[in-house]
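Case 387 in the screening queue. Each case pairs one protein sequence with one candidate compound; here the compound is pyridoxal-5'-phosphate. For every case the pipeline is the same: read the inputs, emit a complex structure as tokens, and attach any notable structural observations.

Predict complex for case 387.
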Amino acid sequence: MPASPIRKLVPYAEAAKKRGVKVYHLNIGQPDIETPQMALDAVRHFDFKVLEYSHSAGNESYRRKLSAYYKRSGMDIDYQQIIVTTGGSEAILFAFMSCLDAGDEVIIPEPFYANYNGFAVAADILVKPLTSYIGSGFALPPVAEFEKLIGPRTRGIMICNPNNPTGYLYSSEEMETLRQLILKHDLYLFADEAYRDFCYTGQHIHSLNLQGVEDRVIMIDTISKRYSACGGRIGALITRNQDILDTVLKFAQARLSPPSFAQILGEAACDLPADYFDATRAEYLKRRDVLVSRLNAIPGVYCPNPGGAFYAMASLPVDDTDKFCQWILESFSYENQTVMLAPAGGFYGTPGLGKKEIRLAYVLNTAALHKAMDCLQKALEEYPGKI
Ligand SMILES: Cc1ncc(COP(=O)(O)O)c(C=O)c1O
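Case 387 output:
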């Protein structure tokens, strides 16, 4: 079972803090945006005598509200096509376990959300990484590259749109390419849309709206990022394929039910006004613009402009970002401050890739981002391993 590459530098950050150094955390996707008050109030004021199990598929009232939210977002989804899960994490695991047998393969464009590896281990399936490149902004690899990887055990393609860690937002042409691929090769499309509501440049093409592959698409959703509710542990698996829903429900029954309090939170959040995301989106967009322009102004650094989510990948003029990200915590500070970054190697399935790249999460306000970028700039001036 792989350790999380995002958390492995934590001891060095803790040691820096013990030395009195302020650490700017750009390493992890923990949003600083406040959880909506009315959603918190719904939990606070919930009147109950017994904290019961809920339905294994989630409370019907919540699923009905979710269905309305999807309809408002342009997806015609019935509440019975939704299974509420313990975070998007459990939805990914249920999707793998329900659609693939042990030893089956899923193709995932890399770099990808590193925990997919953990879910693949748990489900006893194999991830076949397909490299996308920083030079093309991490666009979808060409069809021919997918087809080279498709073999007798290939059962699906997994995407994250917009992407963690790259922030890449797939175009309608790329989604059409994927549609044709899954149709031609009889595959499932697992679409992780955890960041769907955070798109800045371009429009999100919903996987559930792809025509002619309705029974092949499994969408993964979560309230973690949408409502800054990571600790609630509520996600959902959505598909129009009844066989998959039946199988997923068996896994859902085995774990009894998703968390009750956070379902109340999620249900209340569905009633937020349609313009709720405007302010959050505008804030992330401002941060993205600060981060990307500051990064590209540092000699030797390159950061493509991400279209969505709240992550960016950058290449640095160093030989090994694992070493650099440790050094910047362990041996560097500027005005008694430093920055924690995620080395990108852990987001690649192919060994050795991403050694010059880092992922940055723009989950801090613009003033803090400027300070973090001051630290990175100074660190790159001083770093002995610079190339
Ligand atoms: C792409 C992606 N999918 C799934 C998850 C897991 O989300 P949850 O907190 O809902 O389990 C994350 C969390 O960072 C993520 O970035």
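Case 387 observations:
- The mean pLDDT is 96.
- Residues 29, 87-89, 113, 160, 164, 192, 194, 222, 224, 230, 235 surround pyridoxal-5'-phosphate (CB under 6 Å).
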